[in-house]
Amino acid sequence: MKGFYLTRTEMGTILQTIRRQEVPDPILMKAVKRSGCKKEQLPTIFSKLSKASEGNFGLSINEIVTLGNQLEYASFRSTAVQNWVKRDIKDWIGAPQLGKKYAIEQAAILFIVEDLKNTHDFESIRLLLKFAFNNPADRNDDLIDPLSFYTAYSQLFGAIHTKVKPSKEDLRKKAMELSSIFTDLTEKQRKDIEKLLISAALSVQASYYQSLSKQYLEEVWK
Hints:
mainly alpha
């Protein structure tokens, strides 16, 4: 992928860093160096991220879309995301939790939805959100943390992405390893979370193939 982009693992780490009220500049600078561009050329949202240590940090829908569009193999549209929060996943994203801004965990849920919609309809996506995250107004009743889930399946995608045909055993072993961060789960819940991690990672892989397909098609019309 040409130009500046963030891997999902980098995005997950950035969001985790912001949640700790720390500055994510080291991660951003790594991505800037990889792309060969200058930090000043990045969208203004990244200047805001550099001030994340200054208290409660919220993001507007437009900021979430701008940030999401820096992800490799992703294509966010403001109108689509507005439809998600007003209709498709309204009951599972909840109202903005920081005034008119969405909390980090809510942004993570929107990133999760963007990835899942590559292979799942919204009925299936809502079932996953209900199972894993429960009441959006109360993060304490989540089975697992949305941002931790996002980061975990991003790492799983990173592990399988370079393999032409990862085996089911490869997926299972890595998902089992990554699911160890989720404590206080029953054995049945842990196995279910492992399956959700695999499903989400494969949805990102599907997005990669869609992006690659479009790239080859566009080369024909040049």
